[in-house]
């Protein structure tokens, strides 16, 4: 919104200067983008009148004039402008005047004749108006008046970037209202009388799209003089708002738009056939715009038509066939309220952007149309003459915007602003904004004005109160941060530690979708019915995962197809188990999973190349379990799993509970997932390994340790790890550790049996052990193994 500061000050009397005004507007949320003078710097220019005008004797294109500037003597000035003639009033740069560019006026000779000044054009005075000759001033201009004062050229234009929600400020009326609120100043609305109808001529209106156009007004004005000249004051106000003067009728509609905020349009009445119809366009319907461009309309475009043709795209652009010209004598004025949704985006779809569409698509005051019609009529009769008919209106009350009633609570206002503004100030601010305010026990109830359709919720009123009160007037308060130390137990195992361990062992972390393909998932988890999404991204991502394996196996296949022969991946993520007793019917469990395939090591000249096997992955998993400092509590038990090869799979247990599985992917699944070669996977519950034993300092024995090896015979189906751990299960405190270092079957060991060779480490913190102590301790271990596993020493 670009406007003249002087024009704004006609509406609201202010005691602040230009700099303070622009700062105030910016701080209120309407950022001032630019402030520029309305004319160049010049002095010594006055109003004069050409009282004599004759041709130069030695130049066909020059004329010698005598100009009256209100002094005792006439000034003889030579002028070459084509419009220089007797009787016109002009801007005269007298001797000693300084024009823009530091151009000084002196006595000059042109073809032998002296010239005592210069008749000025707009351009020569730094005024941005296109003209072919010198400036022609109104007949009422007083001779000798300083030209800067005559045209109020000490003015500046203020260019404000109005945000999309503040369309009420896209007019002088709206800006004056806003500035008046900020300064607690009254707004002086220009007074005018409604024009009394003198003729009975009317034109009918039919609204076929009431949602898009709830109100439409028109008025006939006959016998107007379209060749009249727009007043210089109007031309200047339009110019200072970057709108070019075209003809008085168009200038008046533009002026009312700038002054009141209501876009209007004028049709040549003689070019309208029948009545006015407001409807949606038919797909492919054509029209020629006022700029002579032809467009093909879409069926989502609101248009104004007569009974035979299109007259205008509603709120955007008129048709060339119905526009006013210098020959127009009868005018049909239009003012309407168009719903923003019906206009928004339409201009852009046709490559257009007009001042009218800019306002309508953001919202125009729905109570402004009658007032704007009367204002435009008054100006039209005053400038162009004519006879006025009655206003013809058509509206759909149910589709017009309704005033909103919003409650504002004192507690909410104080909490959001961080400051208590007095109740009197709150009521005054809301009242100046145009709201009808009622005080309640908890705060206030405000009924919003018709021009503030952006006020819809309580927070909007809080913003307005804070904005008008002035954010700079709210005292600064340092924020209070009550920081609480995070309750982090030392025994908690960080997931990052496990991630780092796996990365150090050659793994890469993968992050896969929580949605998987249902049929693939059923191949891995067949005994649980997963949650199926109602609106999945795709059929391949329609099921919530019950395991991390489907995602990892698909990533392995993806990489193998891209010539990656050695793959090591892990992922930490949630699985989703349907459970009636759980919150929202879903139990979410954090899982850790891994997969390896290809060679066990990178290709190397000194290392034999072997394919990965079960024990490669088991070793990596055991390294993770060692981080708990309680790896002895975990055990691997042979088990069957739907997705794993029967003789190469194991369940991971702790405290008698299965917490995960490890094994080789079943050969029948390899082609279904697109796998190439043996693939080994593991998956374990994170909650079962996220605790670690905190180390405690103990005294180191200063006495030597002793080692004894025993070879025991046990049944072939007895787990070796159980035998090793049982060696520590005695009450003998001298046994410090046990470790299996050999397993033998064959000659010397009967069928169905196996020989386990175990190293026992014995030590005392109090004394050096004697042979008798060692023998008794070993005998106690052998007895314990015999009782538990029916084991005996190998011969």
Descriptive overview:
- With 795 residues, this protein is α+β, with helices and mostly antiparallel strands.
- Helices cover 23% and strands 29% of the residues.
- The protein is built from 20 helices and 38 strands.
- The strands form ten sheets. Strands 26-29-30-34-33-32-31 form a seven-stranded mixed beta sheet, sandwiched between helices. Strands 3, 4, 5, 6, 7 and 10 form a six-stranded antiparallel beta sheet that branches.
- Helix 1 crosses helix 4, helix 6 (248-260) runs antiparallel to helix 10 (369-384) and helix 12 (423-432) packs across helix 13 (458-469).
- The longest helix is centred in the last third of the chain and has 19 residues, at 771-789.
- The chain starts with a strand and ends with a strand.
- The mean pLDDT is 92.
Could you provide a short overview of the structure?
The chain is α+β, with helices and mostly antiparallel strands. About 25% of the residues lie in helices and about 30% in strands.
Q: Which consecutive residue ranges, at least 5 long each, have pLDDT under 50?
A: none
Please outline the major beta sheet: 7 strands, mixed
Distance between the termini: 106 Å
Query: In percent, how much strand structure appears in the residues?
Result: 25-35%
Overall pLDDT level? 92
| Spatial order of strands in the largest sheet | 26-29-30-34-33-32-31
Percent in helix: 10-25%
Q: Can you count the beta strands?
A: 38
Query: Total number of helical segments?
Result: 20
Rg, nearest Å? 47 Å
- Indicate the overall shape: elongated
Structural class: alpha+beta
């Amino acid at each position: 919104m670009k406007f003249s500061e002087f024009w704004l000050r006609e509406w609201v009397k202010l005691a602040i200067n230009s700099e303070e005004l622009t700062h105030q507007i910016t701080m209120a949320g309407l950022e001032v983008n630019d402030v520029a003078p309305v004319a160049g710097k010049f002095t010594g220019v006055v109003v004069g009148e050409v009282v004599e005008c004759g041709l130069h004797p030695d130049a066909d294109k020059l004329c010698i004039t005598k100009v009256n500037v209100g002094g005792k003597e006439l000034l003889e000035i030579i002028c070459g402008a084509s419009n220089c003639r007797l009787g016109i009033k002009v801007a005269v740069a007298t001797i000693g005047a300084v024009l823009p560019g530091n151009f000084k006026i002196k006595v000059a000779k042109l073809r032998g004749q002296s010239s005592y000044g210069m008749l000025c054009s707009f351009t020569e005075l730094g005024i941005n108006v296109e003209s072919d000759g010198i400036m022609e001033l109104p007949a009422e201009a007083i001779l000798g008046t300083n030209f800067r004062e005559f045209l109020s050229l000490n003015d500046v234009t203020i260019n404000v970037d109005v945000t999309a929600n503040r369309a009420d400020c896209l007019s002088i009326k709206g800006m004056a209202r806003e500035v008046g609120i900020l300064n607690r100043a009254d707004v002086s609305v220009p007074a005018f009388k409604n024009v009394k109808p003198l003729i009975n001529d009317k034109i009918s209106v039919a609204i076929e799209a009431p949602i898009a156009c709830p109100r439409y007004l028109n008025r006939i004005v006959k016998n107007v003089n379209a060749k009249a000249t727009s007043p210089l004051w109007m031309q200047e106000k339009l110019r200072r708002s970057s709108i070019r003067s075209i003809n008085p009728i168009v200038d008046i509609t533009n002026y009312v738009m700038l002054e009141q905020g209501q876009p209007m349009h004028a049709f040549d009445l003689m070019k309208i056939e029948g009545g006015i119809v407001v409807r949606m366009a038919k797909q492919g319907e054509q029209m020629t715009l006022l700029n002579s461009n032809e467009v093909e309309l879409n069926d989502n475009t609101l248009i104004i038509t007569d009974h035979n043709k299109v007259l205008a795209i509603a709120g955007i652009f008129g048709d060339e066939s119905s526009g006013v010209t210098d020959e127009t004598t009868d005018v049909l004025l239009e003012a309407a309220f168009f719903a923003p949704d019906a206009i928004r985006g339409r201009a852009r779809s046709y490559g257009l952007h007009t001042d009218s569409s800019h306002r309508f698509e953001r919202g125009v005051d729905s109570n402004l149309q009658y007032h704007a019609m009367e204002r435009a009529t008054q100006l039209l009769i005053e400038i162009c003459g004519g006879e006025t008919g009655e206003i013809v209106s058509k509206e759909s009350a149910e589709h017009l915007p309704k005033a909103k009633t919003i409650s504002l609570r004192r507690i909410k206002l104080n909490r959001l602003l961080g400051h208590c503004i007095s109740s009197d100030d709150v009521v005054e601010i809301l009242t100046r904004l145009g709201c009808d305010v009622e005080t309640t026990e908890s705060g206030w109830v405000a009924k919003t004005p018709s021009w503030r359709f952006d006020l819809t919720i309580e927070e909007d009123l809080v913003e307005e109160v804070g904005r008008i009160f002035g954010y700079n007037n709210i005292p600064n308060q340092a924020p209070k941060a009550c920081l609480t130390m995070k309750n982090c137990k030392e025994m908690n195992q960080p997931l990052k530690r496990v991630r780092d361990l796996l990365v150090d062992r050659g793994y890469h972390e993968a992050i896969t979708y929580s949605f998987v393909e249902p049929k693939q998932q059923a191949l891995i988890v067949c005994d649980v019915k997963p949650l199926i999404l109602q609106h999945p991204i795709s059929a391949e991502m329609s099921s919530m995962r019950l395991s991390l394996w489907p995602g990892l196996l698909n990533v392995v296949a993806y990489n193998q197809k891209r010539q990656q022969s050695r793959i090591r991946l892990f992922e930490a993520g949630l699985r989703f188990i349907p459970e009636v007793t759980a919150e929202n019917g879903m139990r979410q469990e954090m899982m850790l999973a891994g997969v390896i395939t290809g060679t066990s090591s990178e290709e190397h000249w000194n290392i034999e190349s072997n394919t990965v096997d079960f024990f490669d992955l088991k070793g990596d998993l055991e390294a993770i379990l060692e981080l708990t400092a309680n790896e002895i509590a975990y055990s691997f038990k042979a088990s069957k799993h739907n997705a794993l090869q029967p003789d190469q799979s194991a369940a991971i247990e702790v405290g008698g509970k299965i917490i995960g599985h490890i094994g080789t992917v079943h050969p029948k699944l390899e082609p279904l997932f697109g796998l190439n070669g043996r693939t080994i996977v593991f998956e374990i519950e994170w909650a079962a390994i996220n605790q670690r034993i905190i180390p405690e300092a103990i005294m180191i024995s200063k006495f030597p340790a002793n080692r004894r090896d025993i070879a025991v015979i046990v049944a072939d189906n007895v787990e070796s790890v159980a035998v090793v751990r049982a060696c520590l299960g005695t009450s003998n405190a001298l046994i410090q550790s046990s470790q299996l270092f050999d397993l033998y079957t064959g000659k010397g060991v009967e069928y169905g049996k196996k020989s386990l060779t175990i190293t026992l480490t014995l030590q005392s913190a109090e004394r050096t052990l004697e042979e008798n102590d060692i023998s008794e301790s070993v005998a106690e271990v052998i007895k314990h193994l015999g009782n538990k596993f029916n084991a005996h020493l190998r011969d």
